[in-house]
């Protein structure tokens, strides 16, 4: 969990209908979440929490470019900030990666997102996974990275789920492995 910097607060508050009021709310209570319009300064790609946390970890570990990211613990959603008007690039990249994209919500012009306050606590519903530190630099690779991580993470989680279905207990995995080893050893003897 991260905290916003003053420059991050100033940038993010510009998406509010009344930026000065937004900053005042945060000055009075730095834990207070705020509803901000998307499409003005940023768009948000929202995915279910399990997939979002895997995406966040994958993007972070690989060093791919990405902007602020948040989590809504009650709704169990993770949001990734993109530059405004990134829908076309994001969708194009997603379609290049797969013919059946995982479920996601794209929040652009006409939508809104609840963002955490600048200093959320660990028990708060809304928290920053990666807080805005300043106005994010425009990076055309950010939607590409998020689309790629979305598909790769969904594929990884689907494989893990298949493994869990195939081997519901550690014992089942060990038995299957020993059967495969015995069968493979028998085949090797036939060719010798």
Notes on the structure:
- The chain is α+β, with helices and mostly antiparallel strands and 192 residues long.
- It is 47% helix and 18% strand.
- It has helices at 6-13, 19-28, 49-62, 87-97, 141-166, 170-191, and strands at 34-37, 42-48, 69-72, 77-83, 105-107, 112-115, 126-130.
- The radius of gyration is 21 Å and the shape is globular.
- The model has no long low-confidence stretch (mean pLDDT 89).
Short description, anyone?
The chain has about 190 residues and is of the alpha+beta class. It contains 6 helices and 7 strands; from the N terminus they run ααββαββαβββαα.
Structural class: alpha+beta
Q: Judging from the principal axes of the Cα atoms, what is the shape?
A: globular
Q: State the separation between the terminal residues, measured CA to CA.
A: 58 Å
Elements, N to C (H/E): HHEEHEEHEEEHH
By DSSP, the count of extended strands is 7
Proportion of strand residues: 15-25%
Tags for this model:
single chain; about 190 residues; alpha+beta; two-stranded antiparallel sheet; 6 helices; 7 strands
Topology (SSEs and partners):
Layout lengths: L5 H8 L5 H10 L5 E4 L4 E7 H14 L6 E4 L4 E7 L3 H11 L7 E3 L4 E4 L10 E5 L10 H26 L3 H22 L1
Antiparallel strand pairs: 1-6, 2-4, 2-5, 3-4, 3-7
């Amino acid at each position: 969990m991260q905290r916003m910097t003053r420059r991050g607060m100033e940038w993010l508050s510009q998406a509010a209908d009344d930026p000065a009021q937004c900053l005042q709310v945060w000055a009075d209570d730095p834990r207070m979440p705020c509803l901000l319009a998307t499409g003005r300064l940023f768009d948000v790609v929202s995915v279910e929490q399990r997939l979002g946390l895997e995406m966040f970890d994958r993007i972070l570990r690989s060093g791919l470019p990405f902007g602020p990211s948040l989590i809504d613990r009650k709704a169990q959603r993770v949001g990734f900030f993109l530059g405004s008007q990134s829908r076309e690039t994001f969708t194009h990249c997603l379609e290049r990666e797969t013919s059946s994209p995982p479920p996601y919500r794209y929040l652009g012009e006409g939508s809104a997102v609840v963002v955490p306050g600048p200093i959320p606590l660990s028990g708060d519903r809304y928290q920053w996974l990666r807080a805005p530190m300043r106005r994010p630099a425009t990076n055309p690779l950010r939607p590409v990275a998020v689309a790629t991580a979305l598909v790769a993470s969904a594929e990884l989680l689907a494989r893990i789920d298949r493994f869990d279905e195939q081997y519901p207990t550690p014992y089942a995995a060990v038995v299957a492995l020993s059967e495969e080893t015995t069968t493979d050893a028998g085949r090797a003897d036939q060719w010798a």
